């Protein structure tokens, strides 16, 4: 009989694995809150540029409304057996004001360029200040892999 015990990774391994997923995954759960309307969570496509997460959504979305009122957000990748949580402050860029490099990289990854669509879109950029990563209970200790915007490995 084979066991599937979780081998506890070191911080450097967790960071490497988390960064690999940030590059390869396409969806992230975005949790926002508004002082009057409460919490909101939605999955969005995202791009990791090596320093920040870029997402794009309709200019009139609840996510954009919330971020403009309260920029603190939490992002999570969608695998509960391999958790990656990021926390930071979001900044909004109207589709015609987004940095060209970010918009092009987003379009390249998804084959969709919101700048050419009818209607208004907003790019949301989050530079993480904290990152956590763990696989199961054995990795709960040491799950913080970034603190105050600095990777710990």
From TrEMBL:
Oxidoreductase in keyword set: yes
Membrane-crossing residue ranges in chain numbering: none
Keywords linked to the UniProt accession: Oxidoreductase
Record-linked Gene3D superfamilies: Electron Transport, Fmn-binding Protein, Chain A (2.30.110.10)
InterPro entries for the chain: F420H2_bilvrd_red/Heme_oxyg, Pyridox_Oxase_N, Split_barrel_FMN-bd
Domain of life of the source: Bacteria
Domain spans labelled Pyridoxamine 5'-phosphate oxidase N-terminal: 26-132
Record-given protein name: Pyridoxamine 5'-phosphate oxidase family protein
Organism field: Streptomyces akebiae
């Amino acid at each position: 009989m084979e066991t599937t015990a979780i081998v506890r990774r070191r911080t450097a391994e967790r960071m490497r694995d988390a960064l690999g997923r940030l590059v390869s995954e396409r969806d992230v759960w975005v949790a926002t809150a508004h002082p009057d309307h409460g919490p909101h969570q939605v999955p969005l496509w995202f791009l990791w540029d090596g320093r920040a997460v870029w997402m794009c959504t309709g200019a009139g979305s609840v996510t954009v409304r919330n971020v403009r009122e309260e920029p603190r957000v939490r992002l999570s990748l969608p695998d509960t057996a391999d958790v990656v949580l990021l926390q930071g402050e979001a900044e909004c860029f109207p589709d015609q004001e987004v940095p060209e490099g970010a918009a092009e990289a987003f379009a390249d990854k998804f084959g969709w360029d919101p700048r050419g669509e009818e209607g208004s879109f907003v790019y949301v950029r989050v530079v993480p200040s904290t990152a956590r990563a763990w696989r199961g209970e054995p990795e709960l200790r040491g799950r913080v892999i970034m603190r105050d915007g600095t990777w710990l490995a």
